[in-house]
Specification:
alpha/beta, seven-stranded mixed sheet, 14% strand, Glycerol-3-phosphate (1)-acyltransferase, 263 residues
């Protein structure tokens, strides 16, 4: 990684993690992994996995490392403010994502520099663990598409299943005994040729994102041995539907009576 892409990066710290972390991750899970041949051994590349739990980063990291690449994750910026954790993440070349910025291009600027410097970036298109009740991929953000179309880096779709048993989303207690199986399957680069050279409009970014998520979802369907939903879960639409249902469930005049109540 270039110094400009991450000033805190230390090759020595990164080598240390290569010694310490792989044995620990291997000890925490059984593995049935396929498709690592699709990950190029050099040059900037984006690995785009589905997101199930706080434990899947470990599986994705080891899968990528065993394919010959050191993974650099895009991580929410507040994590880098945590004492000891933040400096460690900087030294091993992880990248913060400042979602509070209004300019999406500025949010991903460091990521673009890292890709041009030949890094292997792990970018969760969904941005957070899926809220789909059946744990299928949900509607994603457009950051992966923007990075790929801006830099020309290939996007390798990656599906995994099983990490959510080790550490369910929202839980702080990992289930390490007995060891659980984590299955992973990577596919060939997503075909984004239809969007190359086009202005990065909202429509283009959403269409390219949908192509990425379609490949990830198809891989996950193979792992799970069942068909995926025809339409991905949309958490924003689900919130709107719940709010509308709550309004309809209110007794007639209840809202007006609350407004008229004295304070």
């Amino acid at each position: 990684m270039s110094e400009r892409a991450n000033p805190g990066y230390s090759p020595a710290w990164r080598r240390g993690t290569e010694i310490v972390l792989p044995p620990l991750i291997r000890a925490a899970m059984k593995r049935d992994w396929h498709g690592q041949e699709h990950i190029p051994r050099e040059g900037g590349v984006i690995i785009a996995p589905n997101h199930l739990s706080y434990a899947d980063w470990a599986a994705v990291a080891l899968f990528t490392y065993q394919a010959g690449r050191y993974p650099a994750f895009l991580i929410k910026a507040p994590v880098f403010d945590v004492k000891l954790v933040g400096p460690f993440l900087h030294r091993v070349g992880q990248l913060p994502v400042n979602r509070g910025q209004t300019d999406a291009a500025l949010v991903l600027k460091d990521s673009e520099r890292s890709l041009r410097a030949g890094e292997c970036l792990i970018v969760y298109p969904e941005g957070t663990a899926t809220r789909d009740p059946a744990l299928w991929p949900m509607v994603a953000r457009t950051g992966v598409a923007r990075l790929a179309l801006t830099t020309g880096a290939p996007v390798i779709p990656l599906a995994h299943w099983g990490a959510q048993v080790i550490l369910p989303y929202g839980s702080k207690r990992p289930q390490l005994v007995p060891r659980h199986m984590v299955r992973m399957l990577a596919g060939p680069p997503v075909d984004l040729s239809a969007y190359e050279g086009q202005p990065l409009s909202r429509e283009v970014l959403r269409a390219a994102t949908a192509a990425v998520m379609a490949d990830i979802t198809a891989l996950l369907a193979q792992l799970r041995g069942e068909p995926a939903p025809a339409v991905p879960f949309d958490p924003a639409a689900a919130r709107r539907a719940r709010a509308a249902a709550a309004r309809q469930a209110e007794p007639p005049g209840d809202g007006q009576s609350r407004k008229a109540a004295p304070t």
